Each structure stands twice: as structure tokens, then as C-alpha cells.
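Input chain follows. Return C-alpha cells only.
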Amino acid sequence: MISKVLLDFCTCLLLSLLLVIPFSSSQNVETNRTNNCKQAAVCQPLTAATCFGTKLPYALTSTTLTGLASLEDVHRRLRLWEGLTNVPKCWALVQPFLCAAYLPRCVNETVDLPSRELCELTRGPCKIVDETSGGWPEFLQCENFPYDCVNEVSKVRFNTTGVCKPPLLPTDSNWYPWVEGCGLQCENPLYSSREHRQLHTFIAILGFLCLTCTLFATMTFIVDWKSASRYPALIIFYINCCFVLATAAWLAQFLPGARENIVCRRDGTARVGEPNGGENLSCLIVFIAIYYFLTAAVIWFVLLAYAWHVFFKMLRASKEVIDSKVAYFHMFSWSVPLILTITILTLSEIDGDSLSGICYVSFSNWYIRAGFVLVPLVLMFIIGGYFLIRSVITLYRIHKDSPGLISDKANAKIKETIARLGVFIACNAFFVLVTFICHVYEYTGRQAWQRSLQDFLV
């Protein structure tokens, strides 16, 4: 009987110890965690019970964490952080962290430390602090704060409404890498509205003249199709058709409301990296029409130069030679632009430009612009120029070596053709050179322009 009582007593004692030990251990862990989240300090009354315009739920604080001499210095430093209101996603997260660090709650000569989680939340959206202001102060480094700390400031609801500084607009895309939530307005801020209107007027006049001339040239072929539909003359018809379609796409911006629809997104920012977002197809249609048909026109220019070379070299036998290559002409002139266009669409390297009013190959990526615009243009001009020069040399030899074999009328015709080819080569060289110089000038200046704009905004 006694042994049974002793056994029951020991069993109850063991169960009591098993229950008490975990409870006391959890109490110790909780106590240690609480102690880690506090730091000894000298408490003093809040001179202003608000932080960034939000009332704090306590009356005592301390300057121990900041190392500043007075609360006036603390509030002065806090006002310096108000520039982050222009970074909406950062401003929504950084306010509770800054208030918990600069104006922590102080009770019984100890202050509540911000949690490391709260600190780490600010580092991504607030990258601009590291890039523009010398970085975070030493006492705001996340390594200084423990995990799993809960303080009164984290429960306060702050005014998280940030405002993007013009010409930035609130959006999901980021124009400036370190300003999350703000995109650049559609109208290029590097140029005034007056300069935009002047350039649009120039484009309208030049585009109308180009469309009129190319339409007239196309109609002359159509009216006299039977005699005009022969190579190499027919190649000129295809070149004019390409220019008609490309110019029409360029002038589409002058339809009511079309320009904003083409180059701007719904949130008012510029189109960058299209196709992206699937808002509408106007930007892509304009790009395809302009890039595809201008590239095709440049390739037809090379084929025209080649056809002239064959025509002047072989004369009567040239028709059979050229006609045998017509299928290759069409395959090359229509397939190469198609491949380039599809590649650009796949890479999403199409940008809208408020100045020109169109979407075209990347205005921000020089390598893409050079690879898909300048390199094909210069390459085609070199190849076409080679055949044109060979044609001029051939005609000159005929003129020089056959003075008695051809009539004066034919000789005069050869001279006229040589002069026309010379003017044709000079004009093409001039336009290619101007295009190349404009691109190089934009490339050399764009980085400085963008940097100046970024410095102004930040």
C-alpha cells in the first residue's frame, strides 16, 4: 500500500516537472527576446508628438539611437527624409522605420528597437538612398536591429500617399531604376511643347510632300503599266510603293487623338519596350508599316543598282539575265525586312517617341538601334553604291571607247545618264550621311541628357 502511494506521488511529481519546464523555458525565451528588442537610454518628453504628420501613441522618447544632441536635431534630420515622398513605394515603407529609429518609445529608461524585418523591407524600394545621398546612416543599418521585435510605431497608420515629381507619373513601370512606382511622362521633357509643335509641323509638311511625290510616281506607272512594267524600271515602282505605305503610317499621327494613342500608354507614360502590356496595336502597326517598308525600299535600292549594272553591261542580253532573277529579287526584298521586323518584335525593342510621333526601333538602346537600323542602312548603301559606281564606269567606257560607233544622240544620252547617276549617288550618300550623323549625335548626347534629367529629378 505504501509503495503504491509512493509510486503515485513520484508519477505526479514527474508530470508536474514535465509541464513546468517547457513553460519556464518559453518564458525565458520570451524574456530574452524582449530584452533583445530594448536598449538602455535616457528618456525625455516628446517636444512634438508627431512624426511625418502622424501622431505617435506615446509621450516619451530618446535620442540614444541617433546619437544626436537634441530632439530639435532629430526633427531637423527627419525633415531631410521627406524628399522620399517623390518615391511612392519607398515612402509607404520607410516612414514607420524612420520614426521607430529617430523617435523610439522610451519606457523605464529603455527604448524599443525597430525590427530587422521592418528595416529590410525598406532596402528594395528605397535603393535611391544608396545611390544619391551617400547611403543610410550607420545607426540605420539593418545589422543593428534584432529580429521579431514589435514596437508601437509599427502599429501606427501613416499617410503613405507619395507623389511622383513631374515629369514623372505614378505607374507600375519604373523609368528611373531607383524610383519605384514612377514612370516618365509621354511628352519628352527635354523639349518644350513649342518645340514639339514645331517639329510636328515640319513632319506634316515634309510627309505630305513625300506622300504626294511618291503617289504621283506610283500613278504614272499604273497609268502606263504595259510599257512601264519592265525591269529595271519596275523596281522604281516598288520603291515608291514602299515609301507611300511608310509615309502614310508616319502621317497617321495627325488623325484626331492618334499621336497619344500611338506613343503613350493609358497611364500617361511613354511606350517603352513594346510589345508589352497589350493595351492596343496602334504602336505596333505604325512600327511595322514604317520599319518593314523602309527596309524593303532600301533593299530594292540595292537591287535597282544591281539591275542597272547588268543592264548597262550586257545591254540587249540584260533582259533575260534580270528576268531570270526576278523571283530572287522579291524573295530577298520582302523576306529580309520580315525577319528583322519579327526579331525586333520578339526582343520587345520598340519605343514610342513624342517628338517624331511614331513607334520605332529602340530609342534607348543604342546597340539595338545600330544593329537594326544603321548597320543595314550603311551596308545596303555600300553594296548599292558599288553597283552604281560600276554602272557609271561602264557607261564612261562606252562613251570614251566608242566615239565612232554610236551616234551623237546616243552619246548625249549616255552623258545625261552618267550625270543622273552621279546626282542619284550624291543624294543617297548625303541622306545616309545625315542619318548616320544624327544617330551618332543622339547617341553621344543622350546619356548626358538623361543624366541631367535624372539629377534634376533626384
